[in-house]
Write a structure and sequence with these properties.
The chain is mostly helical. The chain has nine helices and no strands. The chain has a domain of 122 residues: Cytochrome c-like domain (Cytochrome Bc1 Complex, Chain D, domain 2). α3 crosses α7 and α6 packs across α7. The structure holds heme C (HEC). Heme C binds next to α4, α5, α6 and α7.
């Protein structure tokens, strides 16, 4: 019982110091399951914070590019699997980690490709990107992985799957004033933040 009491007192004290709903108290409380960093898969992975510049060539269609062509239904099915596959990244994320329920897509997503995407502009200096280039962009930037083979079935599958998603996408009107807030797909998904 005593063992439990101390952290509780600490937590209460910390609560007094930090006031309502302030996160810093969490780390000090061993009883808080969220104190363990590993519980928040997004903690260190805010793509706004890690917006390092990349070589635009990495995500630009190569000359003579012939995308893989296959059965549309089979590609969609494979795309869905890849979409949820954390093994595609080097940081434990899948496409779905950020884009679940259309999260992290901006209003411009509805426009026909090629179109402007803020992240491609900010990190690769590209004014317009094609959909498959954007898949590669997310592979390289937020997923911290190598681009997929340009003529690979995987790229064709993810492109088909995201193309399908684009058709059902509806932009959200209200945007937070902080442009980075809308771009941190993890902000709303920190399981700890939501619990208070
Ligand atoms: C860490 C979060 C994160 C992960 C993981 C991630 N993305 Fe993204 N994605 C973003 C952000 C942020 C944007 C850019 C939004 C903007 O600037 O308009 C974006 C943009 C896109 C777009 C372009 C939308 C448009 O407006 O044209 C596509 C397509 C896309 N992602 C697909 C993927 C795919 C496929 C994967 C997995 C291979 C993936 N994303 C993984 C965060 C992520």
């Amino acid at each position: 019982m005593n063992v439990q009491a101390k952290p509780l007192q600490l937590a209460l004290a910390a609560g007094l110091i930090f006031g309502l709903g302030m996160a810093p108290a969490q780390a000090a409380n061993p009883c808080n399951p969220c104190a363990a960093k590993a519980k928040n898969p997004c903690a260190a992975k805010n793509p706004c914070a890690a917006g390092a510049a990349i070589d635009p060539k990495t995500i630009t269609r190569p000359a003579g590019y012939k995308p893989y062509k296959g059965d549309a239904a089979a590609l969609l099915k494979e795309g869905e699997k890849l979409w949820n596959d954390t093994k595609l990244s080097t940081n434990g994320m899948s496409c779905n980690t950020c884009h679940q329920g259309h999260a992290s897509f901006e209003a411009g997503f509805v426009k026909p490709y090629p179109h402007f995407v803020q992240m491609a502009k900010d990190q690769a200096g590209l004014k317009k990107v094609h959909l498959d280039e954007m898949v590669q962009a997310c592979m390289v930037m937020p997923m911290a992985a190598k681009p997929l083979g340009w003529e690979s079935r995987e790229l064709a599958a993810l492109t088909a799957y995201t193309g399908q998603m684009q058709k059902t996408f509806k932009p959200v009107k209200a945007k937070a004033a902080n442009p980075c807030a809308t771009k941190n797909p993890c902000a709303a998904k920190n399981p700890c933040a939501a619990k208070k």
